[in-house]
Design brief:
Length: about 325
C-alpha cells in the first residue's frame, strides 16, 4: 500500500510517499523564505500553489513509482494558516479525484508525533512537540493525544526566529541561534517562566531583546536563550513523564533538530532511567512523509472521508483527533 501526503500548513509545502512499513520512499519540500519580516499567509499560499504540482511529480520520480500506484492521498487539514491549508486541500482533492483513490485529512501536530513513533520504534512515549507555532507536551491516554502542557503565548520556534530576526538574521532563525550559541559559554540570567505544566516565552524574548539593545553579545544571548528556554521545556516534560510513569520521550517539530535541546532532553531522560528519541532532521520539520504516514494509519484503521469532510480547520486541536489506529 502506498500513501502520498501533502503538507502545507505554514512556510513549507512538501510531498511524501510512504509504504505500509513506514518506509519513506520520497520526502521532497520547498520552504518559502521571506526576504524580510514574517510569513504572509497569502504569499505562502501562492508559493504552495506554484510548487505543489512539480513537487508531486518529483516525489513520484524519487520514489520510483507511478502516481497510478498510489492507494491513498493524505493532506494537512490543520492547524495552520487558512490560505495555505485551503491551497493544499484543493491540490489533494484534485489529485485524489483524478486518481480515483480515497482522501484523508490529517492533523499536522499528530503527524509530527506519528512519524517519530514509526521511525524511532518507541511504543508509548511522552512527546515534546516543539515547532514554529507549537510547543506542547503530549501523552497518549484514553484514545487521544492529550496535551499536558503547552505554551501560554508564542511557540518556541517563533520566539527563536523573532530574536534572530531582530538581530538582523534571516529565516529560519533557530539554526542561526544554535550556531551562535556554540560560540559562547557566558550565561546571562533571563526570565524563566514555567506555570504548572505550561511555559511562556514572550517575557524571555522581550528581556533578551532589551539586553541585545543594551549591547550584550548576540552569541551570549543566543546561548542563554537556548539554555533557559530548553530548561523550561525539559522541566515540564520530566514532570509529565513522572506523572505518567513513562520511560520514553520523543522529540518532534522543527526545533527538535537542535543538538543542545536533544542533549538536554537526553540527559534528563537518562537521569531518570528513561530513553530519548528524535527522528532524522527531514522528518522533524514540516514534511509530506509524516502526513502520508499518518494518512496511511488512519486509512488502514478504517477512516473514510467524503469531500465534504475535507474542509480545513485552522485551529485543529491535537486532542481533537480520535486516534482509532492505536
Ligand atoms: P508548526 O508545526 O507549529 O506548524 P512550523 O510549521 O513553523 O510550525 P516546523 O517546520 O516544524 O514548524 O519548524 C520550524 C521551526 O523550527 C522554525 O521556527 C525554525 O527556526 C526551527 N528550527 C529548525 N532548525 C532548528 C534548530 N537547529 N534549532 C532551533 N530551532 C530550529
Ligand atoms: Fe510543523
Amino acid at each position: 500500500m502506498l500513501s502520498l501526503g501533502i503538507e502545507g500548513t505554514a512556510h513549507t509545502v512538501g510531498v511524501g510517499i510512504v509504504n505500509e512499513d513506514a518506509k519513506v520512499l520520497a520526502n521532497v519540500y520547498e520552504m518559502l523564505r521571506p526576504e524580510h519580516g514574517g510569513i504572509h499567509p497569502r504569499e505562502a499560499a501562492n508559493h504552495h500553489a506554484e510548487r505543489v504540482v512539480p513537487l508531486i511529480r518529483k516525489a513520484a520520480d524519487v520514489a520510483g513509482v507511478d502516481l497510478a500506484d498510489i492507494d491513498v492521498v493524505a493532506f494537512s487539514q490543520g492547524p495552520g494558516l487558512g490560505p495555505c491549508l485551503r491551497t493544499v486541500a484543493t491540490a489533494a482533492r484534485a489529485l485524489a479525484l483524478s486518481l480515483e483513490v480515497p482522501i484523508v485529512g490529517v492533523n499536522h501536530c499528530v503527524a509530527h508525533l506519528e512519524i517519530g513513533r514509526a521511525v524511532n520504534g518507541c511504543e508509548d512515549p511522552v512527546l515534546l512537540y516543539v515547532s514554529g507555532g507549537n510547543t506542547q507536551v503530549i501523552g497518549f491516554a484514553r484514545g487521544r493525544y492529550r496535551v499536558f502542557g503547552e505554551t501560554l503565548d508564542i511557540g518556541i520556534g517563533n520566539m527563536l526566529d523573532k530574536f534572530a530576526r531582530e538581530a538582523g538574521h534571516g529565516f529560519p532563525g533557530g539554526p542561526v541561534l544554535e550556531r551562535a550559541a556554540r560560540e559562547s559559554s557566558t550565561f546571562l540570567t533571563l526570565p524563566y517562566s514555567v506555570k504548572g505544566m505550561d511555559v511562556a516565552f514572550s517575557g524571555l524574548l522581550t528581556a533578551a531583546l532589551n539586553r541585545l539593545k543594551k549591547g550584550d553579545r548576540f552569541e551570549d544571548l543566543a546561548f542563554s536563550l537556548q539554555e533557559t528556554a530548553f530548561a523550561m521545556l525539559c522541566e515540564v516534560t520530566e514532570r509529565a513523564m513522572a506523572h505518567l510513569e513513562n520511560d520514553e520521550v520523543l522529540l518532534g517539530g522543527g526545533v527538535a533538530r537542535n543538538r543542545r535541546l536533544q542533549e538536554m532532553a537526553g540527559r534528563m531522560a537518562a537521569d531518570r532511567g528513561a530513553r530519548m528519541f528524535v527522528p532524522p532532521g527531514d522528518l522533524c520539520i514540516d514534511n509530506g512523509a509524516m502526513i502520508a504516514w499518518t494518512g496511511l494509519l488512519m486509512h488502514r484503521a478504517g477512516v473514510r472521508m467524503s469531500v465534504e469532510d475535507t474542509v480545513v480547520d485552522q485551529r485543529f486541536r491535537t486532542d481533537g483527533v480520535d486516534v482509532v489506529w492505536r
